[in-house]
Amino acid sequence: MTIAGTTLDRCTRCGLCLSSCPTYLETRMEHDGPRGRVWTLLAAVRDGDAPPTVDPTFWDCTGCGLCVAPCPTGVDLPAELDSLWSALNRGGPAADPGPPRPPASAAERGLEAVRAQAVARLRRLDPELPEASGPTAGAGPLIAFSPYLTALRPDAPARARRLLTALDGGGGPTEGHEVWERWAAAACGLLADDGRPADDRRAVEALRRATPGGSTVVLLDLAASRLAAVLAPAGVEVLPLPRYLAQRHPGRWRFEPATGTELLDTAVPEDDWYAPLLDTLPEDHPRPVLLPRRYAGVAGRDLQHPRTVASLRRQAEGKGRWLDGRGLLTADPRSLARHSTARFYLEGLHHD
Amino acid sequence: MTPTSRGPGHGRLPAAGFELCHGPRLVGRPAGAPARQAPPAPGLAAFAAEARELLGAERVLTDPTTLGLHSYDASLDSRRPDAVVVPRSGDDLRELVLAAGRGSVPWVVRGAGTGYSGGALPDAGGAVLLTRDLDRILAVDPDRRLVRCEPGVVLADLREALAPYGLRYLPDPSSYQVCTVGGNVAENAGGPHALAVGPTSNFVVSLDVVLPDGSTAEFGEEDVWRGGLDLRGLLVGSEGTLGAVRGLTLRVAPEPECSQVLVARFDEQDAAAATVERVLGIGLLPSAIDMITSAYVPGAPVLGDPSLLFIEVEGTAGEVRHQAAALTEAAAQAGGRCELLSSRAFMATRARLVKEKVRRMVTTSGRPCYYLFDAVVPRSRLTTLMAALRRRADQHDLPILNTFHAADGNVHPAPFYDPADPDYRTKLRGFLADVLADCAALDGSLSGEHGVGLEKAEFMPLFHSPRELLVMRGIKDAFDPAGLCNPGKILPEPDPEPAPRPADHGAGAVRGARRAAPGGSPALRVRAGDGAVDIGSPEVSFAAVAHALRDTGLELVHEPLGGGPESSVLTAIDRGRPALRETLAVRARDLVLSAGLAVGRQEVLTVGGSCTKDVSGYELRRLAFGGRGRIGRLTSVSLRLLPSPTDRRSLEVEAADPGQAALLCRELHRLGLPFTALGVLLDRSARVLVTGLLEVRGGTLDEHAARLRTALRHHGFELRACWSPLDSPAVTALAGASDLEHRAGQPWQSVEVLRRLHDAGGPAFASVGPGALWYPRGVVAGPDRPPSCGTSSLGSRVAAAFEV
After folding, report:
1. What is the pLDDT of residue B280?
2. Any chain B CB within 8 A of the CB of A102?
């Protein structure tokens, strides 16, 4: 990683990112905000050669990405975080270097088991396959979802497929979709987060090869969001399902969430996941309220740095306490494992 | 209301120490040079030890990362501290100031570090004291519309806490989601809403301050009426160089029933600027008028992005409709394409549009960073300044955007640069120097809201005479003789020779350009385009000013209690006479833009300037209100004007006794109608009256009048066409009282004294709003009160600073 080509030196230290950062809102210390993290990286550059000295609180950043939108000059801290983490793990996952992780709650342990199994499965994929059996161009949208969704809502992809088939017409997914979906899951970033940048690169390259130019990719869940950046060089349009429905099929679908979903999960980016759903809610339906930003960090990366894991656990627990049994409408499958009152948005989607 | 503070997890502080990351080698050039560092004070080790003893080691941070992370703010500068200390309370803050004094350690208080002028940077090293944990909202008083809080409260949190009461705090700098109240007070922050209601200073009722010697003092707005100087007004905007605020009381306002923002897009910058003039010319006083210019890239064709004007109006639904229609017409006539938005979306929309423009500029110009600064000219000079900015951009080859508060003439030029260019700092400083010279030549001010800090200290001589600078230095010495409290800010090095002055600049850019004109001030001059009136003689009466303003659509919002139409304006200002319409956010004390002071036999000293927003250096002009000759004989003032109301009606109800009148007042107050004056009056015929004045600027009062009639039909009252404020029963009743006694509190909190006054047959006016009871001194015993700061030795030392 070099500073040339990154966005770090665009930071003018205006501080407009601070109020959007979940870890800054926790402590109100400069160490814990995006501006401080950018400074930390730049200071590492200034102070010279490897290994750079990086403030340990740097790794409390969960890469949720909420700081990107408010930045006037376009500093992309999550991208820098990814690069730094990849570089750190160049030779495979680094040995746990930091302080011991705090004990995880039962929900968190369950989620971590899901993650570990998914990583093991993704590593076994054969990179040669997609070229031979990928989908062909012009056959309707491709749908993509994270391994979390497959593990926690195994029926969700089929449900989404039925909805899209009904709305888009046509006979459903073409041959090769299933293989493509497996590679899309692998390229969602979980391998990178686990400290396996080589496996992640392999998955990204295979996915790009297997994706026909000019196709549209529909994301089913928030944890698959990183595919937008992955597929950008392939000339592919990537849209979250709610945005896709609002753009392509206005008025032909409706959203009727389960009763008691009072709160909306915080999302990245906010607008494309929940805003199109809320726009279709009937006037008399109680409108869910967006969760405070200080809990948005749990929608970020799953970096296995001990500080990041601890930061995620802390925020997830805070969020659970804040929810206090209230219903949560979410596009993040991880919230389904963490909070028993969470409902996946897809369950409320119907076509007319 | 019970004290509040932020949620769990807030106590977590960074662990000291480092971790080595193996792997990435970062190469390239960081944004910004390494922080300059002064050699540590000899007493630093002892200070740090004392601080650790007091707070525990985890609150006294000296590791290089923490020091580096507190070496910057939003300015171009950086200065490295020797320690970062996190006090838990106001008492801790005081102990730390005492300890710093013992060790001769310089210190500076820091909020969120979002200032643009380097105000929170430790120029001389030493300690940075964080207000992070001084973040309690202590009390909300919806009756008096006051909130008491600590300096570390974030503006957004204050908003959230006030919302359930239907109240809001109006100053709103663009960083409001993260900046702190303390930082706002230090810089006298403005923001879009400063147009109609003024900057932070207008809302500060009192400050609880730790002075640089470790003593504490409370400075309140009533000091002026207790015979003191308005040191509160001096402290606000003093950039943390005169003491550390540990608690404050702020005035808040009711949420408007309705508000909307007109967004108008123009192909030409100048057409957008002309619309601002037109809007103010038709008697509207929008709550905000902001503008973002189209990108200007020297040598490149116009980017084709429009200049945007945002105009916000508030009031009842009917008023907003009326004003929005008038605004749309004014903007459309100038070629604007208009769209109406809800105010809820205003800040977010503004931020989004600014961001889009910035990102487009980054792509087009290939320069990824921008430097944003603050400069201000009188409103009538805005288009001249905008042309000058484009010329300077050409001269320095810098692409610029400008996002600013148009109706206050307060611009924020933002030149774009490439941090990889080794000369970028020199270029930016050159551009800054030239633009400031242009502002000086246009009778502008050094800063409208960002403050001087480190960024602009060297330019002070361009805007202030050597004598004015000496007075400021004297004030700094009066508060901080040891020079430990945020040293190095505002004032240039003691020998300010020569002043920065670009070689190519015209004769206007002379040193201390804002000195009084050699011929002296005219007796009475209206500058309608700037929204100001200049008064240069004690002979000029309020009636004369009203006469001079009769065709301008503007008025002076000051009708002195204790005076009358024929009384002298200069005398009323000098004596600090309260106005009838103290309910307005811009009150009598906030009207003074500049003042001429004759001290001894010397040439008149002019303090302040011609701009409606001016935070350049210590705001000496604020001491002129209620100065009573102590800082010099007041020879002239420039006063801010407001648009005249488009409808005005007065209310008069006779009550049986003060108790009944006070209850009616409370009922009226709670209706949320646009009363600019309301109170219980005991007139000279021993009648007890409730008198009020309803006003709107834009539209009519029909809707309000109907609501008033419905709400109070059982009381039987008269809503008159109107008396003018100068002839109001309250002004008339108190006329001729040379000294007024003041008691704080709403009429319903002053019923006992009102009864005694009624029995004594004396006139009195108990005013709603700021909550004050006024009556001629000596009618009944005055209130018990602590010795006023204004008359203390500190006040005397401040007054003595003017004798230079």
Report:
1. 81
2. no
Candidates A225, A226, A216, A206; CA nearest to A82 is A226
Q: Is residue B30 less than 8 Å (CB to CB) from chain A?
A: yes
Q: How far apart are CA B42 and CA B578, in angstroms?
A: 50
**A247 near A343, Cβ under 8 Å?**
no
Q: Who among B8, B65, B69 is closest to A318 (CB)? A: B8
Beta strands in A181-315 (DSSP E): 216-219, 237-240, 253-255, 261-264, 289-290
For residues A142 and A164, give the distance between their C-alpha atoms in angstroms, rounded to a whole number: 10
What are B572-603's pLDDT values in tens digits? 999 999 999 988 888 999 999 999 999 988 88
Query: Within an 8 Å CB–CB cutoff, is residue A32 touching chain B?
Result: yes
Residue B8 has pLDDT above 50, yes or no: no
Q: Which residues does residue B107 pair with via DSSP β-bridges, in sequence order?
A: B127, B485
CB B731 within 8 A of CB B561: yes
Q: Provide the b/e sequence for A158-174 (b: ≥16 CB within 10 Å).
A: eebeebbebbeeeeebe
A28 and B354: CB-CB below 8 Å? no
Residue of chain B whose Cα is closest to the Cα of A50: B25
CA B228 to chain centre: 21
What's the rounded mean pLDDT across residues B763-771? 92
Interface of A with B in 63-82 (CB under 8 A): 70-74
Contact call for B29 and A294, based on CB within 8 A: no
With beta carbons under 8 A apart, name residues in chain B contacting A87.
23-24
Within an 8 Å CB–CB cutoff, is residue B600 touching chain A?
no
* Beta-carbon separation of A55 and B18 below 8 A: yes
Is B114 at the interface with chain A, CB within 8 A? yes
Query: What is the DSSP code string of B746-763?
Result: -GGG-HHHHHHHHHHT--
CB contact under 8 A, A31 and B66: yes
Share of chain A above pLDDT 70, in %: 91
Residue B782 — pLDDT band, cuts 50, 70, 90? low
Q: Which residues pair with A327 in a beta bridge?
A: A261
CB neighbour class for B642 (10 Å; exposed up to 12, middle 13-18, buried from 19): middle
Q: Which two tokens stand for residue B355?
A: 């961001």
- Chain A residues whose CB is inside 8 A of the B420 CB are 9
pLDDT tens digits, residue range B696-754? 887 888 888 888 888 777 776 666 667 788 889 999 999 988 889 999 999 999 999 99
Cβ-Cβ contacts under 8 Å, B6 against chain A: 28
Q: Contacts of residue A3 in chain B, CB cutoff 8 Å?
A: 26-30
Closest CA to B650 of B566, B560, B749, B580: B580
Cβ within 8 Å, pair A9-B419: yes
Query: Which residues 6+ apart lie within 8 Å of B363 measured at CB?
Result: none
> pTM of the prediction?
0.92
Residue B54 clears pLDDT 70, i.e. is over it: yes
- Predicted confidence at residue B503, as pLDDT, reads 40
